[in-house]
Amino acid sequence: MLDNLALGFSVATTPANLAFAFLGCLLGTLIGVLPGIGPVATMAMLLPITYSLSPIAALIMLAGIYYGSQYGGSTTAILLNLPGESSSVVTALDGHAMARDGRGGIALAIAAIGSFVAGSFGTLALAAIGPMLAGVAQNFGAPEYFSLMLFGLVCATLLAAGDFLKAIAMVVAGLLMGIVGTDVNSGASRFTFGTVNLSEGIEFVIVALAFFGLAEVIGNLVQQSHRHGTISKVGRLMPNRTELRESAPAIARGTILGSILGLLPGGGAVLSSFASYMFEKRISKNPERFGRGAIEGVAGPESANNAGAQTSFIPLLTLGIPSNAVMALMMGAMMIQGIAPGSAVMTTNSSLFWGMVASMWVGNLMLLIINLPLVGLWVKLLSVPYRVLYPCIVVFCCIGVYSLNSSSFDVYLASALSVCGYLLVRLGCEGAPLILGFILGPLLEENLRRSLLLSQGNPSIFVERPISATFLALILVMLALFLLPSARKQREEAFQE
Amino acid sequence: MRLSPINDVDVLSGLIFAGLGAGVVYVSASYDFGSIARMGPGFFPRVLGVLLTGLGIVIAARGFMTPRGKLTIERLRPIFAIGGSLVAFGWILPRFGFVPALIASCLLAMAAIQRSSLKEMVLLPLLLCGFCSIVFIYGLGLAIPLAKW
Prior knowledge:
Distance between the termini of chain B: 65 Å
Number of helices of chain B: 5
Order of helices and strands of chain B: HHHHH
Oligomer: heterodimer
Strand order of the largest sheet of chain A: 1-2
Number of strands of chain B: 0
Radius of gyration of chain B: 24 Å
Helix content of chain A: over 70%
């Protein structure tokens, strides 16, 4: 593992890759600070730009955007009670309460330290677990992959907030969108309606931008929900000894909880931070302090969301299964670069894998350094009004989509999909399951086809192979756990909190 | 028991999914289904289409029984403005070039809310044109003419 990490650091610390990591972190923080535009939309907007970069530089930058946005989101959550990202919603509860007491600087420092500790641990976990999982996955055949993908999709819909049935329907719609275009096996055109514009299929970037960038802009404008708060004083930055002692165990618990939850399909930063907050509140000796500036309420979730962000890379890099919308985007970026995500990445492309792992740690260090001293600058950015910001987002999306194939059709398609995406959100159907289905659609079909070819049409192959059967059994367990009436009630309560 | 109206969020989304699923089944009926051992191009879409139709019907039925709330959209203007902004960009760009397309889509997007001052409506498109021309055309080398007639 040490050799591998050394290889990784030698890749990650070349001047060019350091620069891309820095750029990614900077952009990510910027995006995280600005409400109304999330990491998925930013990464989608920047995807066309990464075409011209080397694969490792592209992935380093995109990864930097992701964890940079976790840091940035907590800054505004604490100082303004405006969570820039959904993963920092819980940070706002106690973080902003601390800021009102004049302890905003300490909350920021604890959040940054916790994130750094958690990020480092998550990176180590990735380095340790990654090769193990990849080794297991190397024995996977088509039936195993099919069941694994099914398991991933079911978990992702169960663990995500919102209505389960609608989420499943969105997954199915996504799967169908994913197979538009020429079928690789038969050469038949599917759902192209006679136009050549669709013969290559729908571009991933278009779907991501429409559902996460533009639909969100429309949503913000319809609701006119661009509030402005008053910025609290930052105050003293360095926490004293008592504060450190209070937050250290919470950081440790948050890190471990986040690392585990990040591994689950459908998990990642958001789930981790919510779970950690509830956990801290439950084990606290005086839970009534929560919501009034309890330092554990900042330390725990902030560590958890960063750890979760880090470990959610594990299923993608080792099994080729994206666990949430951000990972679907990373997968899209890898496929654009001609890399098939999965266990093969580690063996055929080990410098890429380890370079990315090392760059995550480097990026976390950079974030610690650029965030705390520059807090004032980030806060100033918030004075940019949304009415100036959103036309820029729309224009960047237009250019990004057009530049894919120099095709006006793509831009029209993006327009239609963003309106649909917005309406679906208003109907209670989230975009994340759709995008997971979209990216997994062709893979799911291919593995199903191969499995059935292998078994000469006998579907029992999925239960006869032990690993595949395990995944299918896990699906049933998950369904039973979540859909039984009692569990369902608890889940609803959890999401309400 | 009173049934919920058609614009209930569950009823509406269920009907959309069911309609979409039925459409998929209809279109993919012309693709070769193959057999289970040798899946044709029509296999996967037809199975999913049936599944989507079923899910849609269940969601809609659930909505009819227990209403979830009506779909209300407070303002329609942003939907048309943002949608139109993209369409304008796609239509103008191949005909008149980068700068006109950018200005048109920026102004249309700004029309989504009537809050911008005249100063902003002049300055923002111009600044965006400058910035995007430098970054995308010169920096990243997109082969798009700045303007043409």
